[in-house]
Amino acid sequence: MPVTIRQLEIFKAVVESGQVTKAAEKLLLTQSAVSLALNQMEIQLGGPLFDRSARRLELNDRGRYFLPFSNEILDKFQDLDNLMNEKNSQIAGSLQLVASSTIGNYVLPYLITAFKSMHPNVHVNMLVYNTTTAEKLIIERSVDLGFVEGEVNHEQITVTSWFQDELVLISRPTEESKAGIICDVKTDLNKYNWVMREAGSGTAQIFKSKLGKYVTDLKVVMELGHTEAIKKAVEAGAGVGCLSSLTVCRAINRGWLQRIRLDGVDMRRQLYIIQHKNKA
Question: Is the pLDDT of residue 177 over 70?
Fold first, then answer.
């Protein structure tokens, strides 16, 4: 008996959750139904796909080999289902997106709203992570499209340039800073305490790439995982930060933050759209 689409859906849910119980809840099935379908599929495929422990199911070598083929079949089936359910040439179905922090919080909500007004039958789900995690989700085919700030170089991913953004230095406004502060990249960077994005962030990656050798002597007092946390820390006086102009323009205009002019380096960066090469 061949493996069914439903079995592949159950397999994917178990891989993502690591537990039969959670997979059953996600698929609105009983735990026994999920266990039975999984056991039958392993018998049909000639052996186990998971290493079973008391708490989790982890893919073994056979399971890791089988996973990309399973995902590709499910992707094609979803494409076919979406195509056959389109009515009067209207786009229908679901769109799974992942975006890095700046794009996901400050750009895509406006674009998704406009897209939904034109295509109301499309359900859009967006996850917001850093660039490293977004790349991982694309490779796993957990999402359809990714929008990232950092560079991505992987043989399974197609990268398309989107538009340019600029990173800007920000500080807490002071009487002295109202006249404007200019920072020379060669001499002034180590004068400040720095509040940075976490490792894996596209913003942090580009910042370090742009500054090159000058970044090694920075006094980093905090690494935070969210743009708004950095803005609040800088506003409170913890140090200076470097964020996308898209995220700080309103705060600068309202006087909550002060921009520091950076001389000696071009802080413009490219934003990208990423997609798995084998995903339609």
Answer: no
